[in-house]
Fold this sequence. Notes:
The structure holds two protein chains of two kinds.
Chain A: H1 2-47, H2 52-55, H3 70-78, H4 81-112, H5 118-129, H6 134-147, H7 154-157, H8 166-177, H9 182-189, H10 194-205, H11 207-223, H12 226-231, H13 240-250, H14 255-290
Chain B: H1 3-11, H2 15-49, E1 52-53, E2 61-62, H3 66-73, H4 75-105, H5 113-125, H6 128-138, H7 145-152, H8 164-175, H9 180-191, H10 195-203, H11 208-235, H12 240-246, H13 257-267, H14 271-299
Antiparallel strand pairs in B: 1-2
Helix pairs in contact in B: 2-14, 4-8, 4-9, 4-11, 4-13, 5-9, 6-12, 9-11, 11-14, 13-14
Amino acid sequence: MATAMASRKQGTSRQQTLDRAWLILLQILMTLILISFLVPTLWMVSASLKASTEIFQHPITWIPKDPQWSNYTRVFEVIPLAKFAENTIIVVALSVLGTIVSSVMVAYAFSRIQWPGRNLFFSLLIATMMLPEVVTLIPRFLIFKQLGWIDTWLPLIVPYWTANTALYVFLLQQFFRGIPMELEEAALIDGAGRVRILTEILLPLCKPVIATVAVFALLQHYNSFLEPLIYVNSMDKWTLALGIRSINDSNAANWELVFAAGTVMVAPIIALFLVAQRYFVQGIAMTGFGGR
Amino acid sequence: MTASTMTLRSRLPSRLKLREWAAGYFFAAPFIIGFLVFTAFPMLYSIWLSFNKWDLLSPMRFVGLQNFIKMIGDARANLSLYNSAYYTIIAVPIQLVISFTLALALTQKLRFRDAYRAGFYLPIIVPLVASAVVWQRVFHYEYGILNEVLGWVGIPAQKWLFDVSLAKPAFIIMSFWMIGRQMVIFIAGLGNIPQSMYEAASIDGAGSLKRMLHITIPMMTPLIFYNMVIAIINSFQTFIPAKIMTDGGPENATLFVVLNIWQQGFQFFNMGYAAALSWELFVIIIGFTIVQFQGSRKWVYYEA
Lengths: 292, 304
């Protein structure tokens, strides 16, 4: 009896040591993978602070010996990076605002109002999710050309005031459906209009969802490259994405400048990520299921 | 209430009802207008365009099926399809294995799980244009970090983006860093598998391998399928890295479909032909999606 218990005890403790060893191994492995995931970005930041001679040195120095902060002042002189940043802020702010306003309106119509055609239009909205963007690339360009919108920001902004990202509408609609209808019926009886119901009752309740939509829309527009490339020609209207591409072409050999420009573009987004990580993760989990 | 008044009522909506309908159209107006102007009309217009020849300078000329006939024999267009298919078919399965494995690892009792998750997610937060200029140099023959790291284990330096046979693999390698979204979806799904299933299996004497094969993987098949469909659609539309890192080279080894369409439209100004090519891509993507949905019946497990 006693020996049996002892051997069992030994067995479990051996199992425990094995488990622990496995966890330590996994921990080390994951740390190595984590480093490999971070290295390209860290390398960019580190090389953006190196003298060009240090960049082209073997073996690679990971931490710059003598940080060249002047690379950053230089990059702002070589290309109008400040102007690009300003343009980007305007375009992103207006398109994110449009995305939120229009998605909230449309989600409201699809979730809390009965109207003929609702199901049809909702199906069409869902169908647009399956539509590869490239199909409308050429005709949209020609339409905007006809409208005289080429070389303006309008093609980058106006379409996003039409709730054209089904995922965002879907997210908000799911949320609105979870709020009891009585809330609204009571308000309607009190004579409150629907706009007031939406802005004063529903919106305060769905702040987290709106934050998620805002974060995703912000990323989407900040990263946007193909659209500005097609629609915006004059340099004084370029966004950061176009600026990075241009310095990469014009200063291909000056890695430190290209990397400095890249870091300028990446830094705010990483800061946002660290602050709003919750909304990123939440959003993916939600859209992951909701978005089919 | 009799049947006749009821039908009358449904035929003649009350004023209240009409007001509700008006509100519905009012709030849905952004989408209805936007859909008609920026999606439906462009699609119809694009069909019309694909039967025409237009360089934006001379007037549009109806050419019937000429664009589609040209497409079949166009070596460049076919190469771009091959490149995109090659990239997609090799990159997507490996991406899924990596993201699924990482997600599994992050459900173990590790320390700093949040930090790992954030770190694995970070590369897709970085704007792709910025990633592309960095990765272009990661693959650099002399000063790139990839060759440096490979050198540690004795693998000779490669020319990557300048080597016809390694350029596509380089793009595939780069895509392995962009799996954060898939991973987060997998993590969320793993968290949703009822713990009781594992407990029941343990009582029945199932080891960890059996639990993996008979519980975890079957329960995750809907999400594996979801991630696969989305990844394939996205991979077929790769544009930014190709435009920035190689502009299609070397010898068109990284001329992917969307880059080819962009060149036809905005470099050579063959608007009609570019429209026809985008319809070809559309049909291929939809075809792939339908095939996957058909195939999914065999392996995707949906709870009743």
